[in-house]
Amino acid sequence: MSFFISEALAAPGAVAGQPGMEGMLLPFGILICFYLLFLRPQSKRAKEKKQMLAAMTKGTEVVTTGGILGKVADLDENFVKLEVADNFFIQIQRHHVENMMPKGTYKAITKKGSVELNKR
User: Fold this and answer.
1) What does the alpha-carbon distance between residue 20 and residue 110 come to, in Å, rounded to a whole number?
2) Are 84 and 101 in contact (CB under 8 A)?
């Protein structure tokens, strides 16, 4: 008689605590949910952004991660030169371009901004 080991576990041939396929369902279910909720959408967004950056050309109107709206004046593999006002250019890293805007957005915003400045 032992105080530390129960008699049922100490008996020869007794199998306790060894899960079969039923014990593996919960961990596999959690992994599948994690993949569907987190990994798959993130890789899909990364793929879409990569395609957007590859399709970017001169004259495209874009918004940066900092919220700056501009028109692409020049670009290479790593950097993009944006025109953010008349004859005012900034250079940013290509991966900081967040979104492409519809044609005419940049022109409408700059025209609206110059009208407001003239009122002052």
Assistant:
1) 67
2) no
Domain ranges (residues) in the chain: 18-55, 57-120
* CA dihedral over 70, 57, 105, 87, signed as positive or negative: positive
> What is the CATH architecture assignment of 57-120?
Roll (2.30)
pTM of the model: 0.63
In 35-87, which residue ranges form alpha helices assigned H by DSSP? 40-55
The answer for residues whose C-beta is within 8 angstroms of residue 53's C-beta and 6 or more apart is 94, 95, 97
CB distance 118 to 109 below 8 Å: no
The string of pLDDT tens digits covering residues 77-109 is 999 999 998 889 999 999 999 999 988 887 777
Dist. CA 24–CA 66, nearest whole Å: 45
DSSP β-bridge partners for residue 102: none
Place of tokens 């940049």: 106
For the chain, how far is it from start to end, CA to CA, in angstroms? Answer: 96
